[in-house]
Amino acid sequence: MARNTQVLADHNAPEVTRTLAEFVVNHPSKGWSEAVEHEAHRTFMNWLGCAVGAAHHESTQAALAAVNMLEPAPQATLAGLKERVDIASAALINGISSHTFDFDDTHLKTIIHPAGPVASAVMALAEHLNSSGREVIDALVLGIDVSCRVGNCLYPDHYDRGWHITGSTGMLGAAAACARLLKLNVHQTQMALGIAASQPIGLREQFGTMTKPFHPGGAARAGMMSALMASKGFTASPKAIEAPRGFAQVASTKYDWSEIDSELGKRFEISFNTYKPFACGIVIHPSIDACVQLKNLGVVADQVEKIELKVHSLVLELTGKKEPKDGLQGKFSVYHGCAAGLLFGRAGEEEFADEVVTSQAAQDLRRKVVAIVDDSIDEASADVTAYLKSGDPIHIRVEHAIGSLENPMTDSLLEKKFHDLSDPVIGQAQTNELIKSCWSLAQSPNLQTLLKQCLPS
After folding, report:
1. What does the pLDDT look like over 36-45, one tens digit per residue?
2. 293-299 long-range contacts, Cβ below 8 Å, gap at least 24?
3. Does domain 282-398 have CATH number 3.10.350.10?
């Protein structure tokens, strides 16, 4: 019986899988500006700090326990842990730990957290191949460019349909980066991207659970395995991204192919990376920033009658949990984010601990937050008014939160964030040395020194 199908597919799409493969293989080493080079080191350092910081979190430990049941070969290092596992499992676990605190980098145009899948795959494979730091940075920049350009092509429809775009494009970036490290040719790299294209990982339904950080880890493992399989002759469709039944057209009704090849090799998406000062969903950051400013003005919780919060509808769609039950749910509660900002003047991982989220003080203040949807306000902004019991309102408008492209975290703030995450795991002195290794990564003959510094003493 014939089926009626709606013909919407683009049968004349450009061969972007081939274009990306040629780019990954042929682009020269350090073929970008010093600004891009510096951003690559910032991206790697931020990713590594997040991975080390969550090494002992229950989600990382549960994943490691499952991996150990497979009796993995001790091939690769796990950030912040003494155990060694096979390279695919290292990509998985480091990807999970790097995203567990929801504290990693963000490509704001797409809300992709690009380093999680790419850097997790790169570090594991580079250790196995004894790659140089220069090769690691090259692979990181090119892999992130692939995942974010595909994300640009599909966003926002792909995300709106329910895909967690970090995982569902990250496997392509990880495959590209690993293909570069393996020195695959264009055909092999095209096959690696094709294999990866059949493995999109991540549904937004999982936000607020351990499975959200699984997405970048799963994407890192999938991308690495795709490149390894391609290196051994495994094949895929040469048009796996762009074909009518390929990844892009199946996973989205919006596909702007020009986003993939426009200024390819001249504009690098890592240039648009941002880093979180607050350990939660990026859309909460303007509201937290405003509440931190309230605290800096001397406002305390007991003085507050009500906090009126005007935000874009996406903020409540993603982070509208009024009564989070634990730390993971707290990261998706703009109400808790506001409470943390006013109570503590910060919103690091400690402010999203279970005991803080469930504390009476946090609960009481959350219930004073009234969120109002106002789509005239940008997704990256917030309008906050604190009504005090004395009757005096205090109004703060945040157009660009700290950590945004317009108001970026400085290198010194990134180092402080790294210390806050890493010191409890490996100690302050060792963290100092690890930070130095991150800044000088491109000059390192291999990753051996940096990897040793990642381990607890």
Report:
1. 999 999 999 9
2. 293/396, 293/398, 294/341, 294/342, 294/384, 294/386, 294/394, 294/396, 295/341, 295/342, 295/343, 295/344, 295/345, 296/345, 297/394, 299/342, 299/386, 299/388, 299/394
3. no
Q: Which fold has domain 16-274?
A: 2-methylcitrate dehydratase PrpD (1.10.4100)
Answer whether residue 261 shows pLDDT above 60.
yes
What sections of 367-447 are H helices per DSSP? 411-426, 428-439
Residue 30 backbone class (left: φ over 0; alpha: ψ -120 to 50; beta: rest): left
Other Cβ atoms less than 10 A from the Cβ of 148: the count is 28
Domain layout of the chain by residue ranges = 16-274, 282-398
Distance CA 171, CA 307 (A): 41
Would 16-274 and 282-398 be classified into the same CATH topology?
Answer: no
Whole-number Å distance between alpha carbons of 90 and 60? 11
- Report how far residue 158's alpha carbon sits from residue 444's, in angstroms, rounded to the nearest whole number: 39
Buried residues in 265-298 as b, exposed as e (16+ CB within 10 A): eeebbbbbbbbbbbbbbbbbbbbbbbbbbbbeee
Confidence bin at 3 (pLDDT 50/70/90): very low
Quote the crossing angle between the two packed helices 133-154 and 34-53, to the nearest 10°.
90
Residue with tokens 């510094």: 453
